[in-house]
Amino acid sequence: MPIIMCSKPSPIIFAILFLALLCNGASTVAGCDEGERNALVDFKRGLLDHTGRLSSWTGSDCCNWQGVACSNRTGHVVRLDLRNPHPFSDNKWSMGGELRPSLLGLKKLRHLDLSMNYFGGRPIPEFIGSIRNLRYLNLSQAGLGGLVPRQIGNLSILQYLDLHNDRFYIYSDSVPRLSIDDPLWISGLSSLRHLDMGGVKFRDTSSLVEYLNMLPHIVEVRLSLCEIQSIPLSLPHVNFTRLSTLDLSGNRIDSPTIPSWLFNVSSLVHLDLSYNSFRGSIPAEIGKLSSLEFLRLSNNSLQGVIPKEVGNICKLHTLGLSYMNISRSLPELGDVFSGCIKTSLENLDLYRTGLTSYLPDWLGELTSLKILYLDDNSLVGSLPESLGRLTSLQKLLLSYNKLNGTVPAEILGGLVELVYLDLSNNLLEGIISEAHLANLTKLSDLDLSSNRLALEFSPNWVPPLRLQWLNVSSCRLGKKFPSWIRNQANISWLFMANAGIVDQMPNWFWVSFVQVEMLDISKNAIYGRLPTNFFSFVRLESLILRSNYFYGSLPTNFSPNVRLLDLADNFFSGTIDPAIGESMPNLRILLLSGNKLYGDVPSSLCQLQNVAVIDLARNHFSGELPNCWKHDLTFLDLSSNNLSGGIPDTIGSLSSLKALHLSNNILSGEIPSSLQGCTGLAILDLSQNKFTGKVPTWIGESCPSLRILRLQSNMFAGRIPQNLSRLFGLHIVDLSHNNLSSTIPKSFGRFAAMKVKRANPEQVLQGSTSWYVESMEVVMKGKVLEYGDYNGILSLVTSLDLSGNNLYGTIPRELGSLRGLMSLNLSGNHLNGEIPKEVGSMQSLVSLDLSRNELSGAIPSTMAYLTFLSYLDLSSNNLSGRIPPGSQLQTFNESTYTGNPGLCGFPVKQICENDDNGAGTRNNNTSEEDGAGSQVWLSYLGTALGGFVVGFWVFWGTLILKSNWKDAYLRYIDRQYDRFYVIVAVTFNRYKNSYV
């Protein structure tokens, strides 16, 4: 057999053969595999594609279909990307439907993205764990719910897993939240690099960190809003050699300190532990994280100093420490920011950290700073010139401090990169001129509200600004409507409330600002008519024109996006558009009180499915109330109109109703039992009507949240329900001026909210907004006083008014336990017997009226202990004996005691029998009593002057800080004045008698 000798082939031949093979292989690929095409077609059949995003899925070559990518070498489908391209379009572009297992036919699928769609709460299918070639899986924000299948843990070569799902806050109960029962399966993802499960609820997190520590290639872990309750303080071995991002924000982690093992993860670049419950101080070991660029520890229970080692993290560009209790003044932090952080830091967040003192010059040395949050602290002093050196600054927030002085134009003029400026709620004063804003060409958000600033620009000045947000409320803008805003056509949010404008609303405004989303020009003196058609304002959500002089008919055809409409306290007339329920389907708050509107209350209001607040008070509406109420209405005010008939039964279906105001109408009939359905009622005001029947006993049983009950000036008869005292929070009760005939229940001494004087104010209606504030009239000190609920002042008012009825019997001594009661009015009844001495225990009483009864006996001396009492009326009774001397009871006018012929002693003219009958005896003892009299006179005078001085400064100091306390302090001043007057009168009278 011959031997054939072959020579060694040349490299050129190998290259030719290799290229031939490649070309031959490429030429064999003619579209996608038929089986994979059929799998995609079947998968499409299960989807709901409202906008035709998959309209290209026709023909034989699936590799050219939208969202499908194939391998150039094999032709197999390797990528399926059906992510919603318009994720914030209210689900218009979202796909839904069923996720069919036909996807298993894509044997080589490596990339699957179904994110930002809406699958209606369907669970993540288990078959996904069988697509073994997956490297990338993104199911975030897809409207999927229920348990995450543990089969996903079989994807051993998966590198990217994103199940982020924080939309459960939006979906509420309509979509079950994604959750994980046992995270053990995560440890099987041995190739994983990126993990994002934000918003997924972990039911068991006891070993979560240990499982994550088993992933050798993990680089990024994002687990925000996962309800993780604890993490270990230490680990036996830290395996996070590549971890660069760790986000555990917004959980419930309760830890005595920041875990020490974190400081051994030297690769960390991004660390977010915000919105948890870490305690203790920031450990100095944090300085070991030399690669750290982002550190956020905000909203924890951390306190103490910021360690200076933080300043040595040379790459740190973001430092968030808001809500931390820093026990140092701002200037003292200079040593922290003197290291290499000084040149790297771009974002510094010290919001609400308890900082005190002034703004230091070292702030100007943070040359790279782009964002500076120092708002809501206790900073004082003026703005330092060093702020002007922060030429890279984009956001500056100094609001809610006590900064004073002027705003130098030199500072703002240097901040040429500024986009967001907030100096609101300080004590700044002076003028803001063109020079302040001329260089701020990038400024989009400007808030100067609630200062003492005046904005003065020349009439023809055209600002170079491109504002989107402008708040100059409570600044002085001049009487003319500011023309300089005319060219700011990009403004979406405009606040000019309480700006001193006295002018006609210019027509150009409604043309230039059709894109506005929120407009507040309330509390000015702006007048004119509104456009009849607001439909062109397609982005308008909030329109607040309260307390102006607008007139004419109400606008119609509002944009369907309107959520807040406040036209209260103007001069609008006419009727409400019957189609209001159709034109504003998203309306939440409707405030039309204090106008001249008339006609029926339209039944179309019942069609407002999202409405929470309706206030039509102080108008001229007449007729009966519509009987169609439904939905989640929380506040209804129809008071001070001319409404007649009874209370519709359907109001009782409003289980979310918190306040019902129907006072000052001509409503009649009995209180319907259907109101028992209003179980969340906190305020019930039916006063000044013609209601009859008995005060229902079910009020004390079916309204456990009731805090204010006003049934004044009706025709209620019968007994007072004893079980009202079961209402734990009831602190204002007014049943006056009815025909009630019974004794005062002894159980009224058990009103829990009247027993203790409240120290901390809280809103009576939780969740009230700055655009709607509850208020209530209370008869106190013989006057009608109105208390607002904005700062919780209304919650501090306690009053019990049973006057003007036919009550009989004695005053229960049990009322003496109401030590937090401020006002007690039992006048105009048929009460008899003595005033119980226990009244002297009611130490918070400011006003006490027992007049026009049949009380007898002496005034108890214990009433001298009522040191806060500034109004007292005991007139028209049968009281007798001496008015307790040397006490506050002698500081009231004689009219307090008139109609009691048996009373004697100052201030009444009747002299008591044991007063030695006259001047002769008084003269005999002059020498003995003059010294004592002088001491008493000096004591009274000292008390009077001290009271005057204290009252004077308490009034002015508190009035500056809290205007809502004005009434309380005026009452204090009245009391001091009355006391001073009577003391002088008593002393003068004694010395006069001694020389007669």
What does this structure look like?
- The longest helix has 36 residues, at 926-961.
- The relative contact order is 0.02.
- The chain is α/β, with parallel strands linked by helices and 996 residues long.
- The protein has 14 helices and 61 strands.
- Helix 13 (926-961) packs antiparallel against helix 14.
- It is globular.
- Strand 30, helix 8 and strand 31 form a beta-alpha-beta unit.
* Gyration radius, in Å: 38 Å
Helix content: 10-25%
Mean pLDDT across all amino acids: 87
Which structural class is indicated by helix and strand composition? alpha/beta
Number of helices: 14
Beta-strand fraction estimate: 15-25%
The first-level CATH class of the domain at 729-758 and 798-914 is given as Alpha Beta
CATH-assigned fold name of the domain at 729-758 and 798-914? Leucine-rich repeat, LRR (right-handed beta-alpha superhelix)
Low-pLDDT regions:
1-9, 11-29, 917-996
Gross CATH architecture of the domain at 729-758 and 798-914: Alpha-Beta Horseshoe
Total beta strands: 61
- Main β-sheet description: 32 strands, mixed
* Shape field: globular
End-to-end CA span: 166 Å
Protein name: Leucine-rich repeat receptor-like protein kinase
GO molecular function: kinase activity
Signal peptide: 1-25
Organism: Iris pallida (Sweet iris)
